Amino acid sequence: MKTSIEIGTDAAGQDVRIDVQELLATRLLVQGNSGSGKSHLLRRILEESAALVQQIVIDPEGDFVTLADAFSHVVINGGDYDEREIAAMGARIREHRASIVLSLESLDIEAQMTCAAAFLNALFDAPREHWFPALVVVDEAQMFAPSASGDVSDTVRRASLSAMTNLMCRGRKRGLAGAIATQRLAKLAKNVAAEASNFLMGRTFLDIDMARAADLLGMERRQAEAIRDLERGHFLGLGPAISRRPLAIRIGATRTATRMGTHSLMPLPVADGADMRSMLFAEEEAPAAPRAVAVEPEPEPVAAGELLERIAASEPLHADAAAPPVLDIVEAAAEAEEADAVVIATLQAMLDDPDSGFQSEAMLFQDFSVRCRMAKLRKVPLDLAAFRRRFALAKGGVFDPSEPRWRGALAVADRLPDDMVAPFLQIARAAMEGAPCPDDEALGRAYGSRSPGRIRRLIDYMEKQGAIVVRADFGGRRSIGIPELGLSTEAE
Predict the structure, then answer these.
(1) Which residues form a coiled coil (predicted)?
(2) How far is CA 369 from the centre of its chain?
(3) What order of strands is seen across the sheet that includes strand 100-103?
């Protein structure tokens, strides 16, 4: 059986091949700055080896979902499923040897790391009889195996790093061969990078990354400058699956491409200074009444059970099927109204938990998504950004922002940072109802902090922005006024 694939040509124009059988035993590390052609290289390897080995792609940016258009890959949108469902899919994938792309583009970084960790652990923990060979490609690996702590919690970072370490250090005996790509070696955990025996180094500019790349390639430090001079799509390769000596490689063309394409220059609009100024500073006109048009709805998320069945049958997600009927505009409006009612009820139920204000946005959004599916909505009605805004409004007591009575308060809140919207709206609501000023504990729950000092700084900041005015009487009772509304809370 033929086990080598062609990935490009060398300086003499000769074909350069990778031995896939050897690659499975010795793993691969790809490094290159953004724009150096890492994703193109991975796509070339995936396309050429698609008929030889099962492929599992961890795709944080959704770049590789187009593989399903030309090959039998199943696309899994990680944002549509919970941790238990993702783990079940990981186990089923190993059993049925299905090639898949796990797209994480709809998740924030912490949720991406949590989802990837659950998925990789399920692959790793598969029973021995399912230890078939599989090439596991992880793009932007520095996100999942960071060398230092970042903005994510230590618990999430440790779980993700442990899963990546298992893949690269212990995965070989279980048939899992890691092929990881990173923008910077300095950002990738050394325990993960050190387990690769094959290297493809693309263009990089920082001295520390060039020095590490030169060390891995067995080059002298003075030769490291060559890495800075590499063109886009050109790599230096070394390893038992590629070449015993550093080899310059120009990566060949691919049959598929990313959905986004590449950005290129385009002509600027033709307008003189006066016309451009009039367009920029023109008063906003009232929007024209929207025309009632029928729109094709977005594809619904595939239920976990159905996706598991497709994996078992090795059936691509994008199988030909009849297009869903176009919704009548009246039915679409009724569905939107039902979804909004579910959103309001779900937010109210979530806020019944007194600790909800102190949980991470990723966990809250996952909880929200599960509740919406339990309410039998065809798709989650809010993405993460929209959910973050609606949840902040709900913490401030505004469950339906379309109500006219909230218009003035929301206009003031729009000038404040997102994390201050909820405490401000609590104050505004008390002022509108003539109720006592919320105490520091209530404002802390809305702000997501139990620190009295942070609450005092929060109030000071809002006062400096002109959003509120704080008054204290001789008895130490506090009231807060909102100048733009002409209202004030009762003293408390």
Answers:
(1) none
(2) 16
(3) 15-19, 4-9, 243-251, 234-239, 198-201, 28-31, 176-182, 134-138, 54-59, 100-103, 74-77
How confident is the model over 182-199, as pLDDT tens digits?
Answer: 988 888 888 898 888 999
Range in 67-76, 196-205, 376-385 the model is least confident about: 376-385
> In this structure, are residues 424 and 396 in contact, taking their beta carbons and an 8 Å threshold?
yes
- Residues 420-470: pLDDT tens digits? 888 888 898 888 888 888 888 888 888 888 888 888 888 888 888 888 888
The helix/strand/coil state of 370 is helix
Q: Which two tokens stand for residue 386?
A: 């929209």
**What residues are paired with 100 via a beta bridge?**
56, 74
C-beta of residue 32 within 8 angstroms of C-beta of residue 201: yes
Q: How far apart are CA 196 and CA 322, in angstroms?
A: 45
Q: What is the CB neighbour count within 10 angstroms for residue 133?
A: 17
Number of residues that make up the chain:
492
At position 214, the amino acid (one-letter code) is A
In order of 154, 440, 448, 471, the CA distances from 460 in angstroms are: 31, 13, 17, 12
**455: alpha, beta or left, given left = phi > 0 and alpha = psi -120 to 50?**
alpha
Q: Using CA atoms, how far apart are residues 330 and 459, in angstroms rounded to an integer?
A: 46
DSSP code, position 281: H
357-369 confidence digits (pLDDT tens)? 777 777 788 778 8
Q: Encoding tokens for residue 380?
A: 């989650």
196 contact partners, CB below 8 Å, separation of at least 6 = 26, 27, 28, 29, 168, 178, 180, 239
Phi, psi of 149 (to 5 degrees): -70, 150
Residue 397, amino acid? G
